[in-house]
Amino acid sequence: MKVLIVEDESKTGQYLQQGLTEAGYTVDLSRDGVEGLHLALTEPYDLMLLDVMLPGMDGWQILETLRRGGRDMPILLLTAKDRVEDRVRGLDLGADDYLIKPFAFSELLARVRTLLRRGRGEPEPTTLQVADLELDLLGHRATRAGQRIDLTAKEFALLELFMRRKGEVLPRSLIASQVWDMNFDSDTNVVEVAVRRLRRKVDEPFDTRLIRTIRGMGYVMEAEPA
């Protein structure tokens, strides 16, 4: 999936580009409205993250130009403007979603996934399953082999990340940015502690381990081969 970010704040743009790249997306970044519009008109993107206040051409103008030209890719507006009138204006011009700064990266990533699924006509899943482990996203419940597992909010978010990306090795930096919305610090063991606690609940009471450590790389969720 190819994503275009049009954001003139250097730190925000780099943060979004790094986070989405680590999440598996191909990402282009533009810091100017005119250049951003040119890229959106000439390159095939699956999604656009569009800041409202931009040099050269603002997000409203870019959005209106794209929709008038028949471009129907999902567009998520990013802005510090939190007035109802601004949100209504963006949606009326054709934005698919609207996110107020500052925002949690985990929320942005969830919205990105939802918009991409809508663009492909895929239904939003309400449950995730790996082996005999099931996660009810609507009921906020986890069960394994029919047994209820009580999780904290962060443990639930961590487990959801593992299950959505089952079979993929997830680096600690990606886990830290998506679950805690923080840049990874090698001196911090918050990820290791959280994974250890999650294993005590999800793996240790059962015969088959699902969360594996890949030394020097990160963690992966997958059923052990028989």
Notes on the protein architecture:
The protein has 226 residues and is an alpha/beta fold. It folds into 2 domains: 2-120, Response regulator (Rossmann fold, 3-Layer(aba) Sandwich), CATH 3.40.50; 127-221, Arc Repressor Mutant, subunit A. Helices cover 41% and strands 21% of the residues. It is built from 8 helices and 11 strands. The protein has helices at residues 10-22, 33-42, 59-68, 84-93, 105-120, 153-164, 172-179, 190-202, and strands at 2-6, 26-30, 47-51, 75-79, 97-100, 127-130, 133-136, 141-144, 147-149, 211-214, 218-221. Strands 2-1-3-4-5 form a 5-stranded parallel beta sheet, sandwiched between helices. Strand 7 (133-136) and strand 8 (141-144) form a beta hairpin. Helix 2 packs parallel to helix 3 (59-68) and helix 6 packs across helix 8 (190-202). The longest helix is centred in the middle third of the chain and has 16 residues, at 105-120. The radius of gyration is 19 Å and the shape is elongated. The mean pLDDT is 87.
Summarize the structure.
By secondary structure, this protein is an alpha/beta fold. It has helices at residues 10-22, 33-42, 59-68, 84-93, 105-120, 153-164, 172-179, 190-202; strands at residues 2-6, 26-30, 47-51, 75-79, 97-100, 127-130, 133-136, 141-144, 147-149, 211-214, 218-221.
